[in-house]
Sequence to fold (1374 residues):
Amino acid sequence: MPTLTIDNLSVTIPDGSTIFEAAAQLGIVVPHFCYHHALGAVGACRMCAVTVVEGKMPGLKMSCMTPAEEGMVVETDTAQAMEFREHVGEWLMTNHPHDCPVCDEGGECQLQEMTISSGHGVRNYRGNKRTYQNQDLGPFIAQEMNRCIQCYRCARTYQDYCGGRDFGPMGSRQRVFFGRFTDGMLESDFSGNIVDVCPTGVLTDKTFRFKTRLWDLQQAPSICPHCSLGCATVPGGRYREIQRVVSGVNVQTNGHFICDRGRFGSSYVNHPKRPRQARVDGTNVPVAQALNRLRDKIAGVIAEHGPGAVAFVGSGRASLEANWLLKQWARSLKCPAPVFELHPRRGRAIRQAVGPLSSHLASLRQVRKSDLVLVIGADPLNEAPMLALALRQAVREGGRIVVLDPRPVDLPCVFEHHPLTQEQILCLLAGRCETGLLNNLLSELMTARRPVLVGGSDLLGGVGLQLLGHLTESCDNDDRYCLIHPLLPRVNSFGGGLLEDAPQEDLLERLENGRIKALVCLESDPGSEHPEAGRMQLALSRLDYLAVFDCLPTHATRRADLLLPTATTVEGDGVYINNEGRMQAFSAALQPGIPIAAVTAGQHPPREFMPETPGSQPQPAWQMLQDLLGERHSVTALRRAMEQSEPRLEGMSRLQPGDEGIKVAPQDPEPVEESTVEIWSQDGDLRLLPVQSCYGSEVASSLSQTVTPRLVTPRLMVHPQEAQQRHLQEGEDVTLKTAHGLFRLRLFCDERMATRRAIVPCLPGTPLEIFVPGGLSLPCDIEGGAS
Amino acid sequence: MMELLTAEQLDKFTVQVAGLEHPRELIIDLLRSVQDNHGWVPDEGVALVAKILGLTPLEVEEVATFYDKIFRQPVGRYPIHICDSICCWSRGGDALATHLREHLGIDFGETTADGLFTLLPSCCLGACGRAPAIMVGQNTYGPLTTDDADRIVDALRQEAQG
Amino acid sequence: MKQTEQLLFKNRRPGETAFLKEYEGSGGYLGLKKAVREMTPKEVCELVKASGLRGRGGAGFPTGVKWSFFPAENPGPKYLVCNCDEMEPGTYKDGELLKADPHQLVEGMIIAAYAMQIDTGYIFIRYAYKEQFAYLERAIVEATEAGYLGKDILGSGFGFELHVHGSAGRYILGEETALLNGLEGKRPNPRSKPPFPAVRGLFGRPTTVNNVETLANIQHIVNGGAVWFKDLALTVEGAGTKLYGLSGHLEQTACFELPVGISLRELIDDYGGGVWQGRAFKSCLPGGASTPFLTADNLDVALDYQTLEAVGSRFGTAGVTVFDDRTCMVAVTLNLIRFFARESCGWCTPCRDGLPLVVWLLEKIERGQGTDDDLQMLKAQHRNICGNSFCALAEGAMGPVDGLLSNFEQEVVDHIQKGRCPFTA
Ligand SMILES: Cc1cc2nc3c(=O)[nH]c(=O)nc-3n(C[C@H](O)[C@H](O)[C@H](O)COP(=O)(O)O)c2cc1C
Ligand code: SF4
Ligand code: FES
Fold:
């Protein structure tokens, strides 16, 4: 821990730090370009020069590359350093087109800031400027190479950090070009990060082009709602529309980057079909009226059929506050507690994570630092993309990744893949079959210094996660835990699970046997979330009354007797708990409302005038639920009340949007429900495995027009061996026969997947939406040609 | 002339790649072989090299575009590199270049209509003691008078015809 | 012309190349035999250290000292890389050496590898050296057949394999870390040091990079001994002979092996045949394009590392480029800076964008459109580029500018005041 002096201030920093980092700790920002927190120092731009007055090697030094030494004396503002940095500014600007007035980086241009801070203000160079021809990098990212200052950050982000292999530096000398071999869409699922790291207007968000200047952008720290990792984001919008999302910084979770689904998947907020109006029996009404009606209606059902006739469904999409209030409401009516996960098997998995595993949960940061990660029954790029990036960082630091999964798993790093079926994995974990592989892995786990087990809840279910829990415990030792990083179905699945008092009976049965007359759904859609979606839709039609709170257009909102439009994540405040039990707050960047562009059909000024903002009815669900309960507390007061009632939420009221979040207390060790034993059959015929696909399966992003170019089409994937046996060709249209009916699908083959399995992505809005992931594999068959 | 790699070369490289811990070290060898066969390295050449080495075309392009003597654009059958570095410059390199441009009727970076010659400025050829020097393909000539240069060009023309 | 002791050019005959038979006939591979049979690796290192041999690639780092940092005991692959990029204008000695006598390098590398217990070697050779490439390949085959290369060299149990790697033309590959990236098939930008190649070099393994001439000296040192080698030089600090490549405005521009420490005057008059066309000497680059100019005042300086540093220049590669009294030094500098700007790898700002700015300034001055401000700007560019680039390329590029400003500033002022280049009619 050397202590050194920078600009007459003393600072002590960890060994191995640089002068740049020491200065940063003192709040001194040394101008820089190529240095980036997440990417480290490479010493290319030379902007960060400072003078080492006393030290082993005195003189002008690049602060990002020079280790801080004990007793060193550094000055950042010597004449020598200032003159040099001014020249760096001059050199970098020789070829710059000075097109700031029309540049999309305006307002957040590091080049402007650093040029000013370098002191370079007057241009002496009068020669020709180098110009480039730009490439078309696809629908997400615009390129304007003339503005490039060759800091290499984009390439270091895209290739080194994210593992992309189709974008990088070409050429040399003064003509280095950053791009692709040929025009075309960037292939990486993390391509958008090059926009965030580019210090100038070369790489900008094409979907945000020409929309808003930064100083007019409404932004707020938020949490990405598209998977259970809970990455930090900063959504921004204007004119009542979400216009872009950039990465937030949370060193515990995503670090500095996010995936493209998180970045480009948020325009569902602007979706034209989004519920915007409260509706009662097909008629639009003010929210207050609908709430009164709901209160009366539920009271009526209880009066007539008793409290058992009303069921409440919370969800992993709803905020912790809303779910908690729903629970309070049910309790106040003496109705059964809400169900927070409609999919029973997924529910059991969530309970495992929230309960027995909660003392062993690993953050993404811990995954990045791990030396051995076993990924079991998980497909990171499709289920939780930023996990894939975390795995890559583990590998870059020398860690090893082993994947057990039937899918043809892709990762942006080297890894070992064993394509076992779901049943084989569960068998293996239960110690019921072939143990050689398990034994090898176990002995590796025992000796690893920072082992992490990733478990996908869809494939493993409650039983699998429970077995994983046993496994970690047996690999714990005195120095360290063997940690678990479970993937859960939704952004706040953990929160829902935590609020659950006792496992509920399957809602489907309760609906089918007619015991339930009225159903209240909070940001959930039973007809697409329950594993037996068809049966569920039928059962729903037996209801007397369906009330739905939601911000997305779903089956439930369409057939609701009473609809209350809720605010999306970017329009309200709330808390989500991610898959490692981290509570994180988000805050509203925008007010709900129909985008001006939509209201005016592109005309300005609007041709119609009305007293209130069109489409501004949606409110955060928790506000409406408070109204129902006759309360009006501030968020903080509400969170305090929640802490009181749920001790594990201790700290919740201290959360600030944009902070690192607080982990919920682990559950006290107590006997846990033994999950229902799952039956698996090993052998026999082809079985269907419905899975999540990064683009298309998650509802909100699939409704986002911006990601349309990436959406997967309905398809069927088998091992080439299966195709061969059935005399089928890759690329042909085949018929998938299942208990749910026949489906015509394009056949894909991949030899990296398990045999005897047919994989289909669950795609809401297509016939394949019926295959909800998270269950056990189903019998099926495939036939070629015109059947 | 148009083949990217001969069957034997392909076999040789494939075997070599299989035996190497870091096959990427062959990237220049491969690019140079493609160029020797084809005269320059077309996009398909980059793609082929990438395939052999298990790289993406971009990864090969990053390297290919760094080097001066890998041509990613068509050049004539005889690319003429005229040294413009200090030793040749000090002994009439400029005049030689001007002469060749006039004699061939092309500027730097251009190819004669018959597709035979491309004129390229080059940094020091390692022939400083034989200045002014030029390199045609990989053969270096120097010291050259303008007459010498004409003779070389004429001889190559004849070679091309014969 | 005095006859001086010839080690490296002993077998040099006009238009001929010595292969195994001639090489062995002149005492070739005796050094190797002696080293592996009679000496421990450590002793070889010590001997080279004692000989005072300094790197001939331009930087002049003491070779034995460099070797002594090498983790010879480290298990696993280790590499010896011979740097034959030789693309600095004015430097062509390695090419001459390999044309004359390629086995010298092969033998030197084997002994060096033995001294550092290295198992694999690469000779990195520039694109233009097509013949030398072929000669080396032949020499390696011959040496392998004769048992000098292979798994068990001369029954010593020591094994070494050697490959030749052809480059595709860029000066930056001469920089040793850029060279390593190039060898690995990556973009040849330099790497940051530390870690030095001895710690993490080729493919992340311990690596020593040496120049052709450096390595070719090794067997002579082993044969003749450290004292003998040191005494070959004419200066007290110096050691050995040096290949001097003459170029520019001389009657004879050829490469000679002469003692370290010979005077510039002797070199020019006796070996270069004097300045051409009977003109007077104005200036020279003493050691390649990156070494600051000398003037007529320096004609009697001994050509060696310390002595040249004392007069503000560097020994470099001893590629001496001479300019006569009708030469415009602004134009010379412009030519040199154009070279460096064009050869920049594009990694760091001072080099990538700073050198083109200097080119622009010099062009303006040379055209007669320069102003006093431009001269001040030129000085500021020089002051700020020096010492502040990522690798030594841009630093080297400032050598000529340094020489221009310290020895020929008046010439720059003349351009500005006359509004034209005083050397054109
Ligand atoms: C831009 C640049 C170009 C260089 N070119 C060469 C070269 O062509 N040959 C060479 O031997 N060393 C060259 N060097 C020096 C090498 O980096 C390295 O110091 C040398 O190869 C070490 O060998 P030595 O100690 O035997 O001289 C160059 C250095 C720089 C910075
Ligand atoms: S000085 Fe900088 S840009 Fe120039 S060659 Fe070295 S690293 Fe590359
Ligand atoms: S930030 Fe230090 S060199 Fe770029």
